[in-house]
Amino acid sequence: HGRRRSGVDLFGGAPRGLYHDGSNCVKCPAGTTRQPGAANKCTPSGSGNVDNDKDNDKDNIPAPAPAESNKRQAEERAKKMNAGITDPMQKKKADLLAAAAIGGNKVKKLKFAQPVQAASPDDACAQAYDKAGVRSSLGACVATQTSSSGRRLVASQYDVELLFSSAEVDDAALTEAVNSLKANGLESTTSSVDPIEELKIIPGVDVTELATFETEAKAAAQEAAAQSPPPAPSPPPPLILDEDDHAPGRAGALLVTAFATLACVLFV
């Protein structure tokens, strides 16, 4: 029952190193061979069945590039959406709102109740940050001129608002800023801001891109929430007992006294 007889591969139809050309067994060209049981083809020596080469070709096919993340897509969309904003303050505000929407962060607005007297919008914002006790690198400030004296070298009045993302300034820090303004004689109000709705009223924002950005930002925020680490577990209960924990309670003391009394009765 052997597989080979007189050097002929009974299943392959031709001896090792030969292939059948339709009428005769022909020797494979130099550098090629045909393995026993392989297809009726000559393949490079040491490569085995030609079908194996096909499998190897499949292995060498590069894997498809991973899909672009939702965050990356939304960030690219935000750049296009805000590209037409010419006012630097409004541009910074729009970028903050877009980043908050993508990260799923809350935005708070701190608005001054009274106009700020300053020489320029930048000066008004510098005063606002200083009196609020907040670093000017945080959040975004927008100062809008409300009135002017009409004379040079005379300060103008500006409505000022500061916007902060919860990724940078939390509620406790915002409360400290409000208290700092009060200490400087300035009243203010705080309110929550919907990033998308606020973007709609900024001059220069591309509303067509904004519609797509809203969808992409929502997907990015959901992606960020899914990747956030779980909250830290609660700390274990203390293992060190207080001095009071070692002392027997009143019930324990009464029980000890009862057993002592019983012992006296039984053994006296």
State the gist of this model.
This protein is an alpha+beta fold. The protein has helices spanning 50-60, 70-82, 88-103, 121-132, 171-183, 195-199, 207-227, 243-246, 250-267, and strands spanning 4-5, 8-9, 18-20, 25-27, 32-33, 43-44, 107-112, 116-118, 140-147, 156-165, 188-193. The longest helix has 21 residues, at 207-227.
Task: Give a quick set of tags describing it.
268 residues, alpha+beta, five-stranded antiparallel beta sheet, two-stranded antiparallel sheet, 9 helices, 11 strands, 42% helix, elongated, disordered N terminus
What does this structure look like?
Helix content is 42%, strand content 18%. By secondary structure, it is of the alpha+beta class. Helix 2 (70-82) runs antiparallel to helix 3 and helix 2 (70-82) runs antiparallel to helix 7 (207-227). The radius of gyration is 40 Å and the shape is elongated. It starts with a strand and ends with a helix. The model is unreliable at 1-12, 48-53 and 259-268 (pLDDT under 50).
Mean pLDDT figure: 79
**Unreliably modeled segments:** 1-12, 48-53, 259-268
Q: Which class do the helix and strand fractions yield? A: alpha+beta
Distance between the termini: 103 Å
Helix content: 40-55%
Q: Mind summarizing the main beta sheet?
A: 5 strands, antiparallel
- The coarse overall form would be elongated
User: What is the helix tally?
Assistant: 9
